[in-house]
Amino acid sequence: MKYPRVLIITSAAFNKVTGGGITSTNLFRGWPADSIAVVHNDPVPTSDEVCQRYYHLGNEEIALALPLARIGHAPSSGDAAPLAPAGAASLTGRAKRLIFGDGVPRRGRLTPKLDRWISDFQPTLVYTILGANPMMEIVDAVRLRFGLPVVVHMMDDWPSTIYRGGLLSPLENRRMRTLLRRLLGAAACRMAIGDTMARAYEQRYGMPFVAFQNPVEIESPTGSATPATAGGAARLVYSGSLFADAQAESLIETAQAVARLANNGRRIHLDIYAPAFQVAKFLSRLAIHKAISVHGPLTKDSAFFSTLGAATILVLPVNFDAHSVAFIRYSMPTKVPAYLFSGTPILVYGPPTVAQVDYAATEGWGLVVPDQGVDGLSAAIERLIDDQPLRERLVATARRVARQNHSASEVRPKFQAALAAAAHVRNEGIKFGAE
């Protein structure tokens, strides 16, 4: 396959910490490093495992809308630090929410500095997960300026949840929907994170989508369906991101269930592996008992897979509140394929209307707790620890589904071939080297 020179414009650059960073790393693995460049505003440190060429967006490219832009210092671009709130900092939190809702208005633009950086790289394709308005404005400006085909990859249903709650939110929301439809309509290929999202978006936008999510390297399993113990205690493990509008509340309830079981004499321990900057606001509600430990993320593959394989139960929590369901109902977490092939039974705690919960229930790869409540959750944990035939059945099914749907040797070539095919679709724009 001839690899196009792909320019990735994203809020989730290559890393081994966040779901978006891990997914893109695994999908682009094997792509020639000199044919990848990334334009991003991700505050997480980037990895050079797949790509060595990065441009960090600063307030020159993503600026607060006037008159806010006239207040405060704006960091430079290129290797800049993460975006600062600048002028918006002069408003109180309550005032910001009242006026702007969940997002202060920003504008994105293609600066001469970024233009030169892209010109030097000479891409033949743009790949993007889109995002808030300024990121979409930059994608739109780049595709028009350089005449590049665009591949859009949707990973969450963020269009249903952002730009809400403030007096000016309807204006930003309307702008978001206009930009989104323009970019989806212009895209050479539209991708979704899973089949459920692809079907829903095809119906919503009237355009075809193809599904690609994080793949897993199918190798010899490291785990076992036999209950694992750490100091004689059953060990539950959660590994991944932690967001208020995704899984935090259900993980907190899992911690409450573990604490209750420990207090009742069950030898049990919950280990949580997640980025510290995401955990911080929930730490006091998670670390509620000596049977619960909170750690940093598992950034090395060897440690990640050995930890999953050595656990008694892997926890997949999903929030039950309406806002979270609207945001993640079509999402498929990065951890799912690895969980499936770990050799460890999976406990799925969340509403059945969410795609990942429905996937577990339909395919039978996890013990699903579809009703909210610590009582039912505690009972399910005990059952999954003690019921050996159930454990073995879940593990066998999960491994079969992993091989069938998530093998990197199958998913990655198809994803990369889709990008290569999209690169042949050209938009009108300048030719590199032209005036």
How would you describe the overall organization of this protein?
The chain folds into two domains: 6-215 and 408-422, Rossmann fold, CATH 3.40.50.2000; 229-405, 3-Layer(aba) Sandwich (Rossmann fold), CATH 3.40.50. The chain has a seven-stranded parallel beta sheet with strand order 3-2-1-6-7-8-9, sandwiched between helices. Strands 10, 11, 12, 13, 14, 15 and 16 form a seven-stranded mixed beta sheet that branches. 40% of the residues lie in helices and 15% in strands. It contains 16 helices and 16 strands. With 435 residues, the protein is of the alpha/beta class. It is globular, with a radius of gyration of 22 Å. The two termini are 32 Å apart.
Provide a quick synopsis of the model:
The chain is an alpha/beta fold and 435 residues long. The chain has helices spanning 19-28, 93-100, 112-121, 133-146, 169-186, 195-205, 248-263, 276-279, 283-286, 301-310, 322-328, 336-341, 355-363, 374-386, 388-405, 408-422; strands at residues 6-10, 36-40, 54-56, 62-64, 106-108, 125-128, 150-154, 189-192, 210-211, 229-230, 233-239, 268-273, 292-295, 313-317, 346-349, 367-369.
